[in-house]
Predict the 3D structure of the following.
Amino acid sequence: MERARPLVIGIGEILWDLLPAGKQLGGAPANFAYHAHALGADALVVSRVGQDALGRAILDRLAGLGLRTDGIGVDPAAPTGTVTVALDAQGVPTFTIHENVAWDLISAAPAARAEAARAAAICFGSLAQRHPVARAVIREFVGSVPAAAWRVFDINLRQHYYSREIIEDSLRAANVLKLNDAELPVVAHLCNLTGDESRLLAALAGRYGLRVVALTKGAAGSTLWVDGALIRRPAAPVARVVDTVGAGDAYTAALVMGLLAGHAPERIVDEAHRLAAHVCAQPGATPPVPAELRDLFRPVR
């Protein structure tokens, strides 16, 4: 009998990244859901687009990627979100995120809300909580998943769209935190924590009741704190970096799917690095995932 696919929800912003080479589907929750789906999940994106050509293009793109669209609302007035992306010589992006857009006003249909009750994992960030309407809906969804579900706060600090209150409330709602090495000192300052990397990860876990804390460090690899154990692994090699857009979201999806599959922490980190390296070598955040990477995430029997 075929094993049922776990339901994984990404909730928050969905938008077009306006890259130098053209537009690409973006928004961390959508990128996360795409990669979770590619790795074997039944993935649901909960967000909102405008009643415009860009919004229709997002719905078409999601359908083309094999993702469900029943969690995407359509706003009659607010436009579909866009982000202007500039890349430096190493392919590292700088984002200009435009305001007063549809995903600020997420209002999911009752059928999508009901899905939260059977979710195996939900992923949310800080950016989509910049507006009180979306913040309230995100908090409702996160609070509605089963107690055993993985509740992943993939922090994604962007511009000025975060506060101590948003960060701390989100940490209390989560049992997994994922952040990068640029975000760690910001979060430590907001939470009044001091110490080296190891102490900070343990302190965040202890204060907020987190089971997993993942710290990504680009070419330096990542560190994973899991139930008191600390795992450090080097990054997977990338022959040529095209851009790093979406690599962190791919890592988060791999982390979640590895946890759901019951893999050992060291294996989870290595798998996450391999998927992130693949994304770095392709344009945009949602490139096709080859079969040899998808097969890594088969559940432990």
About this structure: The first strand starts at residue 7 and ends at 11. The chain is about 35% helix and 25% strand.
